[in-house]
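Translate sequence into structure tokens.
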Amino acid sequence: MAVTPGITQRPFGKLPDGRTAELFTLTNGRGMQVEITNYGGILVSLKVPDRNGHFADVLLGYDTLGGYLHDHATYFGALVGRFANRIAFGRFSLDGHSYTLPINNPPNSLHGGTVGFNRRLWQAHPELTPQGPRLELRYTSPDGEEGYPGTVKVRVDYTLTSENGLHIDYFATTDKDTIINLTSHGYFNLSGEGSGSILNTELSVDAHDYTPINANLIPTGAISPVAGTPLDFTHATPIGERIHADNAQLKFAGGYDFNYVLNGGATATPKEAAEAYDPASGRVMQVFTTQPGLQFYSGNFLNGVHGKHGHIYGFRSGFALETQHFPDSPNHPNFPSTELKPGQEYHESTTYVFSTRPVLLPAGPK
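Result follows.
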């Protein structure tokens, strides 16, 4: 049944400083819905149909703003910046200057620091467009915020398309040489949030290489093939099939938490980077991006988090596919650059597209 596309807005809760965070619900003509709050640009829920047309929320998260305010570990659904992923020892150099960042994931700086973009209140501008309902978020990050140089003006657009795609456009400019790496940190469970393990989800990633890590989860600087390792998802494979393999990289990460070097590298238009399929529900999620990397995380640190609707999110009950530049890029000249200079515009795009597959019945007798 056709649905009229639209956007609704309501208060989501009060911040400690008294300001109000808003919750925006975007609905497309097929009934797919995404809820986004301008606090941290957080994706709060994402409701998509299964193969029988039944809708479920496939994003882990919280019922209230308070859950996000008090959570300093998971980054559920967050808009992450200034720099997604880890920077070793919270240090990097640029133009001969050394910069020190907060150590919030010892011994590293993670996801922009102690008060990253995920903990800022963004200016929100909802609108209906020919492509679908859109929420534009804007934030100006002052020079020196969390140790990063330059005043950076950021805009992120979330558009819900008629093809059941959540399209995210990231833009940024700066008045001083700086670094930037933005992503969205949604945790997905295609059977529905709170439905248990994601280990039966079948995943494919269009990457022949990855960036190996050390015991601190920081890239060594090498770019290595996935062939012959449990990290090979060039063909659709259940996430849990090799997650317990005797492999040093898996032991460092406690499962999957790796940056994949996408085939084709950075592109001007989005390319397909990954696909996840849940056999139980029939839901399929394809990921398209302009970014050169994709961080696949298998929820290794989920440990009984109290989430939506009274659900307890246990070990590996959600996975993340974070499109990005590579972790610790400023400290590895051989990685794609994350530098942004005055006069340049940072622009990256990612789309999560949802569809379904029918049950494949076993072949009958010949």
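Note: The first strand starts at residue 6 and ends at 14.
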